[in-house]
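Intended use. Records like the one below are meant for learning the mapping from a protein sequence to its folded structure. Do not use them to infer anything beyond what is encoded.
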Amino acid sequence: MLFTGDTSMRLAVIPLAKKWQAFFLGSSLFMLCYLGAAYLGIADAVPLARLYPDHAVPFISWTIWIYVSDYVFLPLAFFLVTKPEDYSGMLYSMAIATLIACIIFIYYPTLLYREPLSDSPADSARALLYLIDLPTNCFPSLHVALSTLAAFFMCKQSKMWGIFAVIWACLIAISTMTVKQHYFADVIGGALLAVVALLAVRGLLRQPVKAE
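Structure written out for the chain above:
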């Protein structure tokens, strides 16, 4: 159950035995919402305006490998965060961020220009990504939002892993711009979305009952 039976309706802490079941359920929710939102837009996609940082940051094809490392970073963070209240908070905040973003994707779809493909291995990876990821669902960046949330909860886990996670999350955020999957406004929007999701989850988790 996601909620307790009391009137506070707080989110229940996910027990260790159901940790990975919850993770795969959350991953399925993400795929369903993200891919579905790309086809459910109720308005024509609005081309994103390029700001100064978008012109200043060059296109760097090989950074696609950093961009797709997000798909390793997120499950790794979930594996390394071992406190039930923390991995529960991470999963719930990611779910909230995904739902908020997908509502925006549906009601305010945005569109960006993608760089031409070449025959390089990096561009082959981009071509594969483009098969499943339409040039919409841009604002806010879920890549940035989810990696920020992962880094936040890894910082709570340990200082060493936290430093490593923050650096990785920052590189992912930069890569969204260097592979032109997102513009600067999307990155800022993704970071703000992470803050909103954290605030939404804060105080909602029922703390585990400690044995006397």
